[in-house]
Amino acid sequence: MQAKTALLAILCCATSVAVAADPADAKTEKEMKPYTEKIANTDVSFDMVPIPGGEFVMGSPADEKNREEDEGPQFKVKIEPFWMGKHEVTWNEYDIWSFNLDIQRRKLMRVKADDKEKAADAVTRPTKPYTDMTFDMGHDGYPAICMTQLAAKTYCKWLSEKTGHYYRLPTEAEWEYACRAGTKTAYSFGDNPAKMDDYAWHYANCNDTYQKVGQKKPNPFGLYDMHGNVSEWVLDQYIPDAYKKWSGKGTVQFPISPTTPEKLYPRVVRGGSWDDDPEALRSANRIASSADWKIQDPQIPQSIWYHTDAIFVGFRVVRPLKVPTAEERKKYNLDPVIPADEGR
Amino acid sequence: MTQSNNQSSSRRDFLKVTTATAVGTGILSSLGSSAHVYAGGDDKIKVGLVGCGGRGTGAASQALSTKGNIKLEAMADAYRDRMDKSLSNLQKQFSGEPEKVDVAEEKKFVGFDAYQKLLDSGIDVVILATPPGFRPIHFGAAVEKGKHIFMEKPVATDVTGVKKVLEAAEKAKKKNLAVGVGLQRHHQAPYIETINRLKDGAIGDITSLRCYWNSGGVWEPRLAREDAKSEMDYQMRNWYYYNWLCGDHINEQHIHNIDVCNWVKDAFPVKAYGMGGRQVRTDKKYGEIYDHFAVEFVYEDGTRMYSQCRHIRNCWNSVTEHAQGTKGFCDISGAKYETTGGYKWKYRGPKKNPYQVEHDDLFEAIYKGTPYNEAEYGAKSTMTSILGRLATYSGKPVTWDEAMASEVSLMPKEFSWEAKPVTVPDENGFYPIPMPGITKVL
Predict the structure, then answer these.
(1) Which phi and psi angles does B429 have, rounded to 5°?
(2) ipTM exceeds 0.85
(3) What is the average pLDDT value for chain B, to the nearest integer?
(4) Pairing status of strand B44-50 against strand A286-288
(5) Contacts of B308 in chain A (CB under 8 A)
(6) CB contact B90 to A (< 8 Å)
(7) A208 touches chain B (CB under 8 A)
């Protein structure tokens, strides 16, 4: 009996290998499945879920409660398929990069870096923070916070080299598409903020702190904490009337307001946070970064890596099925650009 | 309660104390002219910056952002490249008001004696922001020359330095010079409000205090051995890792938290027990400092302050202060407390940038000629940190009085690029590390 079970297990295993190999290796939208990405030479992994391609209407209708002017006019967008982090990036993942924990561990275990890791080692890592960036709100399982958009982008670049899969921040449109998950209401669970406590951490229920990721109900795509917990970086510069240039143009492909190194503020975060009231957590709500997010960095020049005061800002990663070409990456400023005089 | 209310009440208290001192020593009639120069509020104040690193540049920017006609006119640093970078950053920042940053070539001073030349260059206010080892020398000279002063914390790295600062602080009071110290929590509304409540007995009598600066550590050494022109150059560029310059991280960073506990207690410890070492940051490039300390301080009434500071990545981190009382407990840094009766309070007022407020307050005092002197508690909180270091390095209890009687100095005998610092590396580049049970600190 036992032998039979074992044989069956082997057979099953063999079959699954023959059919789908690693779900992370999907080449077509149809093959896309959830997968778990392990970060080499650590005991940390994170989960990715497939987001099917499709069309949606971006922005909020004029009659949505608490709607702001910058959420319109609405326009149609076509989204290509991608995977998205099931959760916000946690400190467990982020600190591997920011504190060189992988390098440290390789040294300790006397493990040699493979080619992917060598490439990852060549990606810039941030200077060490002067203070404790968790602000005593918790570490393991909690979302990483206080990073600049540049730091989040650089993390993605490192993660791409490290894993061999192309990761980046979502565009603002991809983020909203993933957050709505097919819904048109203010939240992915409807219009009634009274149901908020089932789905999100916000000011009234969070006890003045962020919370471990993944404790509330997910949205229809299986994404957790899209509303609340921490606001999430996207790739776009914040332009209040950005939607104007796209509305009335039919279905727009890959709308993005690329950032430029010269213009640091404002850039966009989405989703609202533990420190916000429910209206800020709406799917269409846009939040603009500002220099105030660094006000307690007493050094000049201020760090390019930390938003000391943005204890409500984190991010999650996406992986587009179709990896962008070098030209596309350049055109949309998808890659991080570290200022030449960094490393003061 | 708003911050300004707190500020004015503490200012009033201060005025009372200072006036009493002034009258007692018969100084009131001979107040220097400095007290009245800016009385109109529209006269120009000329600022000089000594120490042009990231923090010095930040402090200059905050000074220039206060109300009034304030101008940066002179700069001094051991290194020309640091000064140039600092100046260009400030010019960038104040590009809308270029008259604020107006440093002529002849007012740029480089080298170990640059501060002296700067003090003689006709400035009114000096910002002292070099590595802390130099602070006692610079502060003493600035008081001698009758300048108003903003100095960064800590204000010394050894007992000899603390004593120099305390002496100069007295002189500064007599000369009615305004002295601000960069312990910005004293200008941070949530702290002020919380500590006022603690002093009003919100959680009863304070029975113990805890504080932490546990973090991943600071910047990596900047200059490689092979690129250093001399041992002095090497240590100066990598100053955080050398005790005469930095005083170890219990002094350079953790002073903030230790100082908050002293503030709550309205006293300074009489004794310290400590343990610590160098567990992770063992490479020779990390000079001679420890990477962790755990110190128990004892106040005169027997109250304990438990302190930890650590520079090790991926461990439990916290930069906080807490008080335990007979009727409850308080997260001071979180600006909240809870009583045993179940009452909860949390600060909900405005949160202004304390680094700006500390300069706003200082310059307001300078304009009005109001007595203003933070040097004494700055020096004594520096001393508390040093006491913790001495207890940790030696592995033995050290009393405040024993330590204060010490003549041990960490400072080099002379200052030049060829001069020899007190500690130098062995033939393999390793520095002597203080060893508990063996190292003598007094």
Answers:
(1) 90, 5
(2) no
(3) 91
(4) unpaired
(5) none
(6) yes
(7) yes
Residue B27 lies in a domain: no
Provide the CATH number for the domain around residue B259.
Answer: 3.30.360.10
**pLDDT digits over B134-159, tens only?**
999 999 999 999 999 999 999 999 99
Tokens of B29: 């009639």
Which chain A residue shows the shortest CA-CA distance from B346? Answer: A208
Are A296 and B316 within 8 A, CB to CB?
Answer: no
Tell me whether residue B279 is in a domain: yes
Tally the domains of chain B.
2
Strands B271-277 vs B206-215: parallel, antiparallel or unpaired: unpaired
Average pLDDT, chain A: 92
Model pTM above 0.80: yes
Q: Which of residues 135-154 of A touch B (CB under 8 A)?
A: 135-136, 139
Q: Which domain holds residue B53?
A: 45-185
Q: Is residue B224 part of a domain?
A: yes
Between CA B424 and CA B432, with CA B428 as vertex, the angle to 5 degrees is 40
Domain boundary among B144, B169, B185: B185
- Residue at a domain's end among B144, B163, B185: B185
Q: How far apart are CA B410 and CA A3, in angstroms?
A: 74
Q: Cβ of B317 and A136 within 8 Å? A: yes
Domain CATH code at residue B119: 3.40.50.720
How confident is the model at residue B33, as a pLDDT?
Answer: 41
Is B220 in CB contact (< 8 Å) with chain A? yes
B38 lies in a domain?
Answer: no
Residue range A94-106, pLDDT digits in tens: 999 999 999 999 9
Tell me if A99 and B320 make a contact (CB, 8 A cut-off).
no
Instruction: Kindly tell me the sign of the dihedral angle through the C-alpha atoms of B295, B299, B302, B305.
Output: negative
